[in-house]
Specification:
This protein is an alpha/beta fold. It is built from 13 helices and 14 strands. The strands form 3 sheets. An 8-stranded mixed sheet has the order 2-9-8-7-6-3-4-5, with helices on both faces. Strands 10-11-14-13 form a 4-stranded antiparallel sheet, with helices on one face. Helix 6 runs parallel beside helix 7. The N and C termini lie far apart (51 Å). The structure holds 4'-deoxy-4'-aminopyridoxal-5'-phosphate. The site of 4'-deoxy-4'-aminopyridoxal-5'-phosphate has 14 residues, from helix 4. It comes from Aedoeadaptatus acetigenes. Its cofactor is pyridoxal 5'-phosphate. One of its GO terms (molecular function) is transaminase activity. This is PLP-dependent aminotransferase family protein.
């Protein structure tokens, strides 16, 4: 029998895995995953970039490369950070990652001894909780209201607990809630982190995907003491299949990241990094992002309009200004896991909200994704979900 490490006890197979497996069935209308719209992938332009790299620079592209990443690609990461308001970054301040998910694992590896605290938004990204749990932290859940984390609760969490290693935040179009922090909350968070000497991990995969209004300044751009660690990714603005993200932080944190990166996989694929840099040199990513925004914004509006039409009035939901997800709240006596089972019978899937809390889950929420289903399927799926909900609230 395999004798597994004790820490594996913390990692339970996700209860929602079965549900997500069902969504591979093409007859199911799935609002469960977080997949970008595949029809927008610029496949021909990627092939052109790949051919160019292989013809002009094939040997280098197929060779090992530096651990911190391919320089031309790191320069493109800077362009992305400029877009969310971070101005004073240089290529040497960027560590390329194999997806930002890798950065979540590295953060825990670098900062967490068993029993240390991590502050998280409540709810928060399920994949982050799973990455962190392997390193045996304790979680302090701080509730979100419409404007971001409730700062009084955050201050209490920081005041009452030693060994808070970092505050994990998705301040723009959060997964799962779709919520975005106001400027006041952003500044308040930085002040509290300074006061209690805690690092902030800003996970920012969605900040550029804003349908309306102005892009918000990232936490890193408001950082006054070099304590915000920024993670970005090409997954949602280009493609998740290439597995390229990046990380920017104070030099001493970057050094640690570089060391664990070497231990984890030496480097992110040279081939992919060089093709991606070529693609970005030769194509207009801003125009591509605009086309993503147009499609997702439309789908989100169709979903929200359908929800207004078909959902009973006891059920409320967020109306995000960007990103891929919205968050539904049921009357407290209803459990979204039961609703999910009934919805599957009608061939509609979503993720019950309880999965997005490390402890004491609130079970009367669920997450809906609107990025990867056609407008017709969104309308039909929400109509069927409305029937299930109308029955449930009776
Ligand atoms: N952070 C958040 C908040 C996410 O929603 C995701 C993907 N769903 C990730 C990180 C991981 O993204 P990737 O590894 O593809 O960059």
């Amino acid at each position: 029998m395999p004798k597994f490490a004790k820490r594996m006890d913390n990692l339970k197979a996700s209860e929602i895995r079965e549900l997500l497996a069902l969504t591979a069935d093409p007859s199911i209308i799935s609002f469960a995953g977080g997949l970008p719209a595949a029809e927008l992938f610029p496949i021909d332009k990627w092939i052109e970039a790949e051919n160019k790299v292989m013809k002009e620079n094939g040997a280098a592209a197929l060779q090992y490369g530096p651990t911190d990443g391919y320089k031309r690609l790191r320069e493109h990461c800077i362009t992305r950070m400029n877009k969310v308001g971070v101005k004073n970054v240089e290529a040497d301040d960027i560590q390329v990652l194999s997806g930002s998910q890798q950065g979540l694992d590295f953060m825990a590896r670098i900062f967490i001894d068993p029993g240390d605290y991590i502050v998280v938004e409540s709810p928060t990204y399920l994949g982050a909780l799973n990455a962190f749990k392997a390193y045996e932290p304790k979680f302090l859940q701080v509730p979100l209201d419409e404007d971001g984390m409730v700062l009084e609760d955050l201050e209490n969490a920081l005041k009452n607990n030693d060994n808070v290693k970092f505050i994990y935040v998705i301040s723009d179009f959060q997964n799962p809630s779709g919520k975005t922090w106001t400027m006041e909350r952003r500044k308040g968070l930085i002040e509290l982190a300074n006061k209690y000497d805690v690092m902030i991990l800003e996970d920012n995969p969605y900040g550029e995907l804003r349908f309306e209004g102005e892009i918000q300044p990232s936490l890193r751009s408001l950082d006054t003491e070099d304590r915000v660690i920024f993670m970005g990714t090409f997954s949602k603005i280009f493609s998740p299949g290439i597995r390229v993200g990046w990380f920017n932080a104070a030099k001493e944190v970057l050094e640690k990241f570089n060391m664990v990166k070497q231990g984890a996989d030496l480097q992110t694929s040279t081939t992919t990094q060089m093709i991606l840099a070529q693609f970005l040199d030769d194509n207009d990513l801003e125009a591509h992002i605009d086309s993503i925004i147009e499609v997702y914004g439309k789908r989100k509006n169709i979903m929200v309009e359908a929800m207004k039409k078909y959902f009973p009035k006891e059920v409320t939901f967020t109306n995000p200004e960007g990103g891929l997800f919205l968050w539904v709240t049921l009357p407290e006596h209803l459990n979204a896991r039961d609703i999910a089972v009934k919805a599957i019978e009608k061939k509609v899937a979503f993720v019950p909200g309880g999965a997005f809390y490390p402890d004491s889950p609130e079970e009367n929420h669920f997450r809906l994704n609107y990025s990867c289903m056609s407008e017709e399927k969104i309308e039909e799926g929400i109509k069927r979900l409305g029937e299930v909900l109308t029955e449930a609230v009776k």
